[in-house]
Design goal:
By secondary structure, the chain is of the alpha/beta class. The protein is 38% helix and 14% strand. The structure holds pyridoxal-5'-phosphate (PLP).
Amino acid sequence: MEQLAINGGTPVRDTKLYYGHQYIDEADVKAVSEVLVSDFLTCGPKITELEEKLCKLTGAKYAVACSNGTSALHIACQAAGLTTGDELITTPITFAASANCALYCGATPVFADINSETYNIDPASVAEKITEKTKAIVAVDFTGQAVELNPLLKIAHEHHAVLIEDGAHSIGTAYDGKMVGSVADMTTFSFHPVKTVTGGEGGAVLTNSKELYDRLVLFRSHGITRDEQFMEHDSHGPWYYEQVALGMNYRMTDIQAALICSQLDKLEIFQKRRKEIVARYNEAFSEIPEITVQKEIPESDTTRHLYILRIKPKLLTIDRKQFFEAMGAENICCNVHYIPVYWHPYYEHLGYQKGICPKAEKLYTEMMSLPLYYALSDQDVEDVIHAVTKIVENSRK
Ligand SMILES: *Cc1c(COP(=O)(O)O)cnc(C)c1O
């Protein structure tokens, strides 16, 4: 019944707010409908259009659209040549896919700790964990803030490893004046509905390397090529193709591509609104001593996907779970991103133990994700701030 005491009286809102929601308009509906009555439902012109749009947006030379952010990470690892005996370094504060992609290739995920202030992977910890077995680093732009790309590129290349940036959160973000997608060896995007731009499902890999691009295209579709330069035998005729590697079917449909293209036309307004909301939250929460605001590195011009509320449990009579539940009682449904990957039973059974990344584990026990999406009204944002303020005031030590 402590919860009642914390909340006290009527909830801040009478309708529920969730942490994320897609925004679909008439233009999106029209774009999808047009594809449905066209000649191509997959492998058609919308895929090319999307890939060109992504290159234009990011400045990357090549883009490969695929079925989702997870398949994007998988083909990126395959293109990097990741295989049995190799290691892949990533952060524990991410969706499991950032580490699973190593396991798909028979390689071993190694977890580096985070920077306690930015919550992104700490290049110093990567430098400690890197070995001659490391073939790739998957650096996640957690919440949308770019990782420290320059130091990470330096460490990766000194060790002949490939830097894959998991940009599932960071479409629209720039690092040091360059758009995410054009800096790392490969960058992956996700177009899941909770992300800034959606296709229902969808993903993409961006790269400046022709060699990596050719491999990405191959692994996206069964390892099959119609390009004679990659064939081992002479062509039998115009129908001829060869399977030269073991790929998957990770293709995207034109239906998804049309939706993503239409959504990308709104990226600027999405960015603007997300930045406004983040600025308002930061302003309000930086005045509350019981709350820590995520630090931004000056190099990152961030389009934020997630807003993290981090509490200081030592200054409060309640812990994160109670805070989370109290927010729910105010009709503000938060979420937690993420449970450290190696805490999941599957990873436990592989032999990973608690304590590998203490800063990440501490962050996990203190954070929750607040509502952040384009369609939030100013009143919604004020309601969230009101709820947080009220709960802090009622649980101050
Ligand atoms: C969403 C997400 C993914 C996976 O993307 P899907 O499109 O859902 O497969 C990978 N990494 C991170 C950090 C994500 O947030």
